[in-house]
Design the sequence.
């Protein structure tokens, strides 16, 4: 299948702070990859560079074989990369469906078409708050789903999900896992940042552990779970024992 | 934004239609002094609506919009004075040039946000005013410096955009305001409107959905400047004089912005509502106390502004329509007891 995105020796410095340190890796097209690591490990920073919010201090990023290191965020969306934000950013004045419409407008000028696609997304993502609920009056889960739905409305090929399950209860997490699987079945590649290790181990085919900005280890959930470095740095003995 | 506001508007439609009818018909039956106030209401409604198209939707505070009003007024007047071109044609040439000018000016300005944007637009306004005041000719164009442009009276001539009675000017304004409000409504219900609202709400999220922030802001800027230039042409034709110290003034810019802010940013009818509230207050106060207490109208302006910011930070449009709606519901259920509340 080949890779959809490849990072080569990517580093990001904020002043003296090295947020991402010489990270290299690639994501297989059609796969679902988990990105985990302790707080401040640089996960969100990595997403920001992949979606070209800011360029890396050094290193290169290739998206579908094209060098996008210095590309702009909006052109990345047009090329098929969509993302959600860890701190949700709903368009508060708009309704849920109107939020989706903004995403859908990337590929159409027609309001009715956008509306129809937005309503399909609403049903697809399985929200229950009502289509015409103002976005700033929705609950945490619905905000997370709103983020996913809005990103999906741009018809992406690669979707970056930044802690969409944080703040959700176990039942809601299960729902979101199902949603992720459904999205993957549609042929969309997923990269998922999550702190709930159990959930991410069941969801993902491949796990990358980030530690202090650098890649600590990567592999299948089993490989990672048995990696001594991962256990000592992040997963902890408890998780290993629990496996 | 859309669905909700629509239903609000149509539910308050009795008052809305009443208000619009007053604006349409009453000026026919009042004396000239009152007609002048009506003309000012619609003139400021027009300017504020144009301001709203870019600043109201994008959520930036331009305090230099009088520049574009002035540029429009100058171009169409110069075309009339020096090239004998009818203002009816000149106003479109002026509008096109003003739109291009607005886009060029907007290019650097829209890289800034919040107070930086506002300060830059103030600086721009002052820069243009001082420049025009101090230059007699620029590139062979006879700007006439601080004297301004005096348009000769040529009698009641339609072709010269010159009318004997105020009421004709008024209906020209009605048409211009109607066009501007229609354009606002169309924008609001189109991709452009969704994009601008998204940009205002969260630029980072908007950009991540593929929205080119600068491009859409500049499109809105172009439309806004195109339309406000018509107001400029009207101003010149109506007053028959364009003075740089008035039309490019900071006062003018602030007044335009305030009316739109008080009315309701990003709403279709808010600026008109704001003008209906603020312009009569100003006119009445400066009429009554202009001699004894000059500046009182500005004082009252300030108070109204503070009250609105404190109690209706998003303008009077939504609270007022809500009020109208509830009054209407009461009147309605008074007549027919069976009507239920909360109909959709
Ligand atoms: N814009 C910025 N300016 C300065 N420092 C930043 C910026 N963004 C992130 N950092 C710093 O970079 C480091 C990595 O941050 P990042 O947000 O990528 O971590 P994370 O892995 O997403 O953590 P979390 O699990 O808490 O979300 C942190 O120390 C953070 O304080
Ligand atoms: Mg993070």
Sequence:
């Amino acid at each position: 299948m080949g890779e959809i995105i490849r990072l080569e020796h990517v580093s990001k410095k904020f002043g003296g702070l090295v947020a991402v340190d010489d990270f290299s890796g690639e994501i297989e097209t059609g796969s679902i990859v988990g990105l985990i690591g302790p707080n401040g490990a640089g996960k969100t920073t990595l997403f920001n560079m992949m979606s070209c919010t800011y360029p890396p201090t050094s290193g290169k990023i290739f998206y579908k074989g094209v060098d996008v290191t210095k590309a702009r965020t909006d052109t990345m969306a047009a090329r098929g990369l969509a993302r959600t934000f860890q701190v949700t950013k709903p368009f508060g004045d708009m309704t849920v469906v109107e939020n989706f419409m903004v995403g859908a407008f990337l590929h159409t000028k027609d309001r009715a078409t956008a509306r129809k696609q937005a309503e399909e997304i609403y049903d697809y993502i399985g929200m229950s708050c009502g289509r015409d609920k103002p976005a700033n009056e929705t609950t945490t889960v619905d905000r997370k789903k709103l983020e996913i739905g809005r990103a999906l409305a741009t018809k992406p090929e690669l979707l970056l999900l930044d802690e969409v399950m944080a703040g959700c209860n176990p039942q809601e997490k299960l729902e979101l896992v199902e949603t992720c699987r459904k999205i993957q079945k549609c042929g969309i590649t997923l990269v998922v940042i999550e702190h709930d290790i159990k959930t991410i181990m069941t969801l993902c085919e491949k796990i990358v552990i980030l530690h202090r900005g650098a890649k600590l280890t990567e592999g299948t959930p089993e490989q990672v779970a048995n990696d001594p470095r991962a256990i000592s740095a992040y997963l902890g003995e408890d998780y290993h024992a629990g496996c | 934004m859309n669905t909700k506001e629509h239903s609000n508007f149509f539910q308050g439609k009795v008052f809305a239609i009443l208000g619009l009818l007053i604006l349409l018909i009453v000026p026919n039956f009042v004396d000239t002094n009152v007609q002048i106030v009506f003309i000012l209401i619609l003139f400021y409604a027009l300017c504020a609506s144009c301001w709203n198209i870019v600043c109201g939707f994008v959520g930036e505070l331009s305090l230099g919009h009088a520049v574009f009003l002035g540029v429009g007024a100058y171009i169409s007047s110069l075309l009339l004075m020096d090239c004998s071109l009818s203002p009816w044609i000149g106003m479109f040439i002026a509008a096109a040039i003003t739109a291009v000018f607005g886009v060029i000016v907007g290019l650097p300005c829209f890289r800034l946000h919040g107070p930086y944007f506002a300060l830059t637009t103030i600086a721009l306004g002052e820069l243009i005013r001082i420049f025009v005041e101090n230059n007699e000719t620029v590139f062979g164009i006879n700007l006439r410096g601080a004297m301004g442009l005096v348009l000769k009276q040529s009698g009641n001539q339609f072709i010269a955009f010159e009318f004997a009675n105020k009421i004709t000017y008024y209906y020209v304004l009605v048409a211009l305001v109607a066009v501007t409000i229609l354009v606002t409504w169309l924008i609001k219900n189109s991709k452009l409107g969704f994009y601008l609202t998204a940009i205002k709400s969260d630029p980072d999220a908007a950009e991540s959905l593929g929205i080119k922030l600068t491009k859409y802001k500049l499109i809105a800027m172009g439309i806004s400047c195109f339309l406000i230039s018509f107001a400029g042409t009207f101003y010149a034709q109506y007053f028959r004089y364009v003075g740089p110290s008035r039309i490019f003034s900071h006062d003018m810019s602030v007044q335009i912005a305030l009316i739109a802010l008080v009315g309701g940013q990003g709403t279709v009818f808010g600026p008109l509502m704001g003008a209906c509230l603020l312009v009569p207050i100003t006119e009445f106060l400066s009429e009554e106390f202009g001699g004894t207490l000059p500046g009182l109208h500005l004082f009252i302006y300030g108070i109204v502004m503070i009250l609105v910011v404190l109690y209706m930070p998003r303008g009077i449009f939504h609270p007022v329509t809500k009020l109208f709606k509830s009054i209407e519901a009461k009147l309605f259920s008074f007549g027919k007891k069976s009507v239920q509340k909360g109909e959709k």
